[in-house]
Amino acid sequence: MTQTIGGGIQALREAMAGPVITPGDAEYDEARKVWNAEIDRHPGVIARCATAGDVVAAVDFAREHSLEISIRCGAHQCAGLAVCDDGLMIDLSLLNQVVVDPDARRARVGGGALLADVDAATQVHGLATPVGLIGHTGIGGIALGGGMGWLTRKFGLSCDNLESAQIVTAAGRVLRVAEDENPDLFWAVRGGGGNFGVVTEFEFRLHEVDPMVELGFFFWSLEDGPAALRLARDVIATMSLDVNVVVGSMNAPPAPFVPEAHHFTPGYVMLLTGFDGTPEHARLVARIRESLPPLFDMVTPMPYVELQKMLDEGNAWGFYCYEKATYVEDLSDDVIDVVAEQVLRKSSPMSLLLFYRLDSAYSRVAEDDTAFGGARSPRFAAFIVALAPDRDLLAADRVWVRTFWEALRPHAVGDGSGYVNELMEFDEDRVRSTYGARKYERLARIKGEYDPGNRFHLNANIKPA
Ligand SMILES: Cc1cc2nc3c(=O)[nH]c(=O)nc-3n(C[C@H](O)[C@H](O)[C@H](O)COP(=O)(O)OP(=O)(O)OC[C@H]3O[C@@H](n4cnc5c(N)ncnc54)[C@H](O)[C@@H]3O)c2cc1C
């Protein structure tokens, strides 16, 4: 394939400020890698774009040579959507600048930045915007599909905090999208993923977030798991917006704060965060310890930027992954029964289940205000993740994830369709049910306007109407 576009590659190199990498180049194998080691694809060309103009050149080049396009930001999308075979990979990793205007409380974020870049730049000013829990995730994929994390209850999803964006369309046009400029497209990029073009810059609203937070990490045995989930349910029912909880099941990490005897022990975990110096955190720590003494715990103040990187190592690049998500309204006894049974059946010690709480600011955004593919009633997002050091263990836990997801389905909100950023299978019915028919139709009309040829189809694909 590269032979047929060989002459063109030179032209692309000349048109771009950033490097163009092809299979013969020393950095090719590193550049085509994505976070999930299961994915091994060989693009014909990698355009590592340094400017919006580079992105235009790459999109035009792909069109002229009829090349499939994949878009790479943090490369974390688990099905490996960031990389294609034979086609052109638009690698945005050099577009990682974050420029903060503390007075206006806005951040302009390059379309290839990582969450850690965003947190580092905004926290210098005691500000933040809601993003996910792992620092090496890309802002592009997370914000275009939703974006859930510690600050979502207080300030909404990442996409809810988008003020404007700059986007390169399939026709190679550079557009600004905001409430007052291309409003349909602005609506679509807040949840509709990478369907509508390549976002070269996001502008996010920022909020005051004290640079020091309180963390509680509590770990219980498998036997105490159901009681731990019920305790989490009670804590969550009354917690204010200054605290948050992520709860689930995993093996204890081999971290310095974990007694050696418990390294890798399977069990249940509750992470309790406290923001802006709230005394509620200490009260809840005491309540948790008293109600259900954990196997071990750690309670400590830490910088917000460290909290946002705390899980990075356990989710490092180079492991094999398969995942599915769903929403449940509550941690009901029925849900807890399913969890208690299913967590015993995983094979890989790295596989895990996490529940994120979504309510308050998340629920104050009207359903139709953004294209986000999930209803806004208070709920839990359940992430069932198979993570393994090798393919054999992954194969076993791929089955585990699917069985677990099916078992939760009768208790899930709607038909069980989960979070679009966690999809691994992309048939049209599944994508449609993730968005709901009405939103999907609106997205399809906008897709028809901006990408009628479906050039950007390596995503949770919206078919152009
Ligand atoms: C370890 C891990 C932790 C996670 N934690 C969370 C979490 O806490 N909260 C949460 O909400 N989600 C979380 N996720 C899911 C995450 O939202 C998705 O995997 C997301 O797609 C990752 O974005 P990325 O930029 O890293 O991925 P990439 O693979 O680079 O991109 C995924 C897709 O997004 C689109 N895209 C990316 N950037 C752009 C752009 N600039 N312009 C146009 N399209 C673009 C493209 O279609 C691309 O194929 C996590 C995933 C992993 C693997």
Please name the CATH topology of the largest domain. Vanillyl-alcohol Oxidase, Chain A, domain 3
Assembly type: single chain
Largest sheet entry: 7 strands, antiparallel
Distance between the termini: 31 Å
Give the overall pLDDT as a whole number.
97
Strand % is: 15-25%
Principal-axes geometry comes out as globular
What is the helix fraction of residues, given as a range?
A: 25-40%
Q: Give the neighbour order of strands across the main sheet.
A: 15-12-14-13-17-18-16
Structural overview:
By secondary structure, this protein is of the alpha+beta class. The protein folds into 3 domains: 6-91, Uridine Diphospho-n-acetylenolpyruvylglucosamine Reductase, domain 2; 98-208, 2-Layer Sandwich (Uridine Diphospho-n-acetylenolpyruvylglucosamine Reductase, domain 3), CATH 3.30.465; 212-422, Vanillyl-alcohol Oxidase, Chain A, domain 3 (3-Layer(aba) Sandwich), CATH 3.40.462.20. 30% of the residues lie in helices and 23% in strands. It has 15 helices and 18 strands. The chain has helices at residues 6-15, 28-31, 52-64, 115-123, 139-145, 152-155, 183-189, 225-238, 280-291, 304-307, 333-342, 361-364, 391-408, 428-435, 437-450; strands at residues 20-21, 45-48, 69-72, 88-91, 98-101, 106-110, 127-128, 162-168, 174-178, 198-205, 207-208, 212-221, 243-251, 266-274, 296-303, 320-328, 352-358, 379-388. It has a 7-stranded antiparallel β-sheet. A 5-stranded antiparallel β-sheet has the order 5-6-10-8-9. The chain has a 4-stranded mixed β-sheet with strand order 1-2-4-3, with helices on one face. Helix 8 (225-238) runs antiparallel to helix 11 (333-342). The protein starts with 5 loop residues before the first helix and ends in a 15-residue tail after the last helix.
